[in-house]
């Protein structure tokens, strides 16, 4: 199912304009003058840019290196993304540390050797972990919180050569073509790196973004919407099953949300569905065609099931609060067409036109979004740069 979502989301990218998601001149930041930062600075890895480009990087002479260890602190709830990269010979020999399904993944190219190894503890638990990467004889070692997490051994005819020239280091991206890697992964990560000590060097690092986004002091799992954009999927990614339909579940403190949680519309048609939280009215309202259902905003969990002939809404765990709305071809003539050709927007109200700008964007944290009982990764859709897909800030 995840693979299908990626394919459909990729197709949607071709049909949406930059205006729809609020992108524009900001996408040209990579062309701006590079700025210097400290290598120990806090780096939010999910910051918007070309997703494969590092957020910070530096170049040093190999003759200046006296230490073979780099250490830093790392925190994320995201199961996948690029963390740390290094290379020599202008990218001929390289190293990449990333996460895949929450587990550390190291990929190394050295001369005629290409290696990929995954292992160690899952790191996407939202806690700060201290990671140390080092070279020990013919091994590259990853230590996690002082314990051995992953070791990669290499043997090559070129291992004993004396290295000279430049070493490049990067955080949050890579400096080579992604096609060179054995294992492909989604690079952008909702996570943070801080207190980096890179080969015991004090050289400045460079960033190509105008300003590095800060890391939140405290975070919790969820998807955070700051009120500036939404995430979009094709409805065809989630086909209605004859027996079970499509079940969408939301969890969170709805009393602290304001704006559109979910909207569904097909191009050229009227809005089919929206779910809205209102602080002013102190309610959560669901509109389906001309029918409207109002609920108390103290609700913590909503399960909405779309079927061919009915729409069912369950509030919290109380079966007595289950509401069923009948669907028939007369009152909802375009219902199934919308599921074949429409779009779902999480965190905003879809406009009428193909490239129209959304509105009534959501402010707040959805602690869980599930489709068919599986967590929905907003990174697999087309989302506004301001949305954090895997973490929400915790109020002090």
Description:
It is a single chain. This protein has helices at 2-15, 335-341; strands spanning 35-37, 43-44, 56-61, 69-76, 81-88, 93-100, 103-110, 113-118, 129-136, 139-144, 147-153, 166-171, 191-198, 205-207, 219-221, 223-226, 231-234, 246-251, 259-265, 273-278, 283-288, 291-296, 301-306, 310-315, 323-326, 343-346, 363-366, 368-371, 374-375, 382-383, 391-393. The strands form 7 sheets. Strands 22-21-20-19-26-17-30 form a 7-stranded antiparallel sheet. Strands 2-13-4-9-10-11 form a 6-stranded antiparallel sheet, with no helix packed on it. It has a 6-stranded antiparallel sheet with strand order 3-12-5-6-7-8, with no helix packed on it. The longest helix has 14 residues, at 2-15. It contains 2 helices and 31 strands. By secondary structure, the chain is mainly beta. It has 2 domains: 33-209, Jelly Rolls (Sandwich); 223-393, Sandwich (Jelly Rolls). The radius of gyration is 24 Å and the shape is elongated. Residues 1-31 have low confidence and may be disordered.
Number of strands: 31
Tally of DSSP helical segments? 2
**CATH fold description of the largest domain:** Jelly Rolls
**What's the shape?**
elongated
What is the number of domains? 2
Question: How many angstroms does the end-to-end distance come to?
Answer: 38 Å
Structural class by sheet pairing and helices: mainly beta
Give average pLDDT, whole number: 84
Q: Portion of residues in helices?
A: under 10%
| Rg for CA atoms | 24 Å
- CATH top level of the largest domain is Mainly Beta
Organism: Dicentrarchus labrax
Main location: secreted
GO cellular component, one term: extracellular region
GO molecular function: androgen binding; steroid binding
